[in-house]
Amino acid sequence: GLVVPGKFVLLANIQQDPQLIVALELGNYSGGGGGGAVPANLLGYNIYRDNGLRAYVEKPTLEYFDLNLNPGTYSYHITAVYDLTPYGFAGQTGESMIEGPIDVTVTYGYELPFVENFNTGLFETNQWTVSGGNWRIAGQAGNPAPSAEFYFSPVTSNYNQSLTSFYMIGSGIVDGKIYLDFDLKHTLTNATENEKLAIEVSSGGAWIKVAEYTNAATFNWDTKSIDITSQAKGKVFRVRFTASGAVTTDIFNWLVDNVHIYQVCAPPINLTAEVNLPFVEQVILNWEAPESTGPGISAWLGWDDGVNNDAIGLQGGGTFNVAVRFTPAQLAQYAGTSLTKI
Questions:
Q1: What gap in Å lies between CA 266 and CA 244, rounded to an integer?
Q2: Rounded to an integer, what distance in angstroms lies between the CA atom of residue 212 and that of residue 77?
Q3: Taking the CB of residue 282, how many other CB atoms lie within 10 A of it?
Q4: What's the CATH fold of domain 9-106?
Q5: What is the CATH number of domain 111-264?
Q6: Which is the most buried residue in 34, 47, 93, 134, by most CB within 10 A?
Q7: What's the whole-model pTM score?
């Protein structure tokens, strides 16, 4: 039942699975290693991105546009899809070996330095996005007005709402440090310390918290400066301000203004100047090269509550196991570093 008139077909059953079949058709040799006619039973192509099927493209189309991609590096490969009817398998298709993979890096966003003072009165001007209904532009408040405001109304409980920037390009930065500066003002109703404003950075993976403020006390405008080098240098990244807590009526508002994201390169140090005696008409200058910013984050990670306990409950000795588990989100800021001591 597998013999096709006019065809010589070699069949192979792989690992005794009747669903896995190889069919080789022997025909007249036309010479050459390519450039011949397109096979008549070619149906189209499967397009894969990061090993997931993205699209099917019917022949004779030989291009595909992958749209609405976020910044990042993507891996593509493609296969040809064939109709197996000529080989005696009506209604079935087969897929070729892959062509690829090929990697493409997509980069877009705002170049540094980036400044946002919300003076247009719109989040959309510089492509900020908001979640929830409590972030708004405060037209009559700011440093100077206007500013971005997380307001207590509408009253919301167990909330988590973010004001998120568009993409920032740090991928071409190989030296110096990257800082996030902003002005912050807070007015509370009840000092519960349960209402929080977190500052977070993401370069495509988990959001990493780099600072957090609570409703412990009301404070006037204060300029904050946060080193986000490890999260931003050499990457395309975003920043966000996330208000969260038990109930918004325990605060009046959080106000954010004058967001500034920028690179700082280390300056030369220890500049000295003196007259180059006996040449009284000359001054000689000396200085030292900039200090290195170091290889990156260096820190001890602890898993405890700060209380030292010197016993584990064994009465007469014995063997016991100890384990510590950090989640990927807890370790995200240490990406690229190494464990050197325990």
A1: 36
A2: 43
A3: 10
A4: Immunoglobulin-like (2.60.40)
A5: 2.60.120.200
A6: 134
A7: 0.71
